[in-house]
Amino acid sequence: MTDIERNLAGGLLEIGAVLLRPEDPFTWASGWKSPIYCDNRKILSAPALRGKVASWLSAKARELCPGAEVVAGVATGAIAHGVLVANELGMPFVYVRPSAKDHGTRSQIEGTLPEGAKVVVIEDLVSTGKSSLAAVEALREAGADVLGMVAVFTYAFPQAEEAFAAAGVPLVTLSNYPALVQTALEAGRVSEKDMQTLNLWRKDPANWNNV
Question: How far, in Å, CA of 59 to CA of 14, rounded?
């Protein structure tokens, strides 16, 4: 576990951005039962952590995509994070909607995206990777050259890693689920028994509610 992974995991737990309830699972929009709920929007209300996250994301973006010319945020959760990164890097910013508007210009990408622009994508949370990669596809269809994606947090599901590899999109994240639960254990927020449940869920989240 790196220092950033540990520090961010601890910060997310401290501000209540991540809730762990192995005994009283949450229900996601997909219908999945989950012992964890992650809301990275809460970072925006915590100035100290917000500044660190912006700095970490910017550093990772420079490292992963040194040739980037434009920063793109995935709507809606990563719009603010993307703006902070674009400010720090001194680059233009655009954001990608889940789908095109049904009014006005009917745009899916908001902002000015030059043809052939080299883009680094900022995401707040990667779960299965479906919505994140849909944003990448929209950027590619608009003529952008997507160099990679930097995200705040990932559940590190195997299917997401496979999807990013298949799409040819390098992905770097600040922290991840294994680092989070280990940090929670060390802080006494979960028990060893809870850890068994938490680890079992990540292996097969879609069917975990049937176990």
Answer: 23
